[in-house]
């Protein structure tokens, strides 16, 4: 008991000072940064009124002059008014650059109905030469990623050869597949995939990787393995991304043994296992509480010339914390910091809570100092836990 009291007297000043700092910092009133008001002397050359005047003051405008007008638009919501004004001109003759800047501005304004109308005009007017795959890639990206209009993205892809006289590249095709997987529309993925031949797309490894990703996320691991067997049929070779995606699916499903089987396959086929691959396996071991094996795998990856990253160390650290090995976690954290990697805020919190529960005051003091040194500010709950440990010897 005397030792405990002595430790408390020694450590209390450091903790008390930091608690006081924390209370002062959280009790200060917050004033938003002062913002200067804009004066009325700004440049108004890009106002809708002036741009409208520019579209009207000449009987003939070159495509470059039209492009400059649309590039000058600062308010995306005004682009549709100017576009309608331009389409009414006798010299209306848009090109790909003009279409692109207008559609980009409409995307910023979230005016997807107007984009639909322009795409319809392109189909029927055909006033400019066939547009490039790059143009349609951009339109599809706006539909899917900005507007969440995935059906319109799919329709645009399918319409490209006949309606727009442009064959999609495999990059554009894969963009749509990836959108569908991200949106978890797994049933539609297959419907688009089977259209590859009709669209003139030659399947590549990236395309098959996207299918594997979707199947793994949907828990269809056997089907994902069947896609793996499709690689040689499509004259493709699986890469580290292919197999690490499968490994992640197996580890997520608790099939760590099967995941390690894929690692052995990588070694047999001469595929380099990168940091992501090893991190997936360490995570799988951690989820099963196999901490020692995770630590061994960390050393194995180093011996194979694969440099671990912060995520590698973080997975092992969390594994030690998960099973309550707090002193081992402290030692591992110390080594991690020496290697130049910073533990997360959650790691510090969990370590300090665990050490407090075991009344390890000196170790709590060490972790707290390191946490603050790294730039983290412990929350009030953590300070309360620390003070209870110091003064009362209990959590």
UniProtKB/TrEMBL annotation:
Any Pfam family the entry gives: PPR_2
Q: Which residues lie in Polar residues bias regions?
A: 40-54
Region ranges (Disordered): 27-54
Q: Where are the PPR repeats?
A: 204-238, 239-273, 274-308, 309-343, 344-378
Which PROSITE patterns has this protein been placed in? PPR (PS51375)
**What Gene3D superfamilies does this protein's entry cite?**
Tetratricopeptide repeat domain
**Which keywords annotate this record?**
Repeat
**InterPro entries noted in UniProt:** PPR_rpt, TPR-like_helical_dom_sf
- NCBIfam families, per the entry: PPR
By sequence similarity, the record places it as follows:
Belongs to the PPR family. P subfamily.
**What PANTHER family does the entry give?**
PENTATRICOPEPTIDE REPEAT-CONTAINING PROTEIN 3, MITOCHONDRIAL
Q: What is this protein called?
A: Pentatricopeptide repeat-containing protein
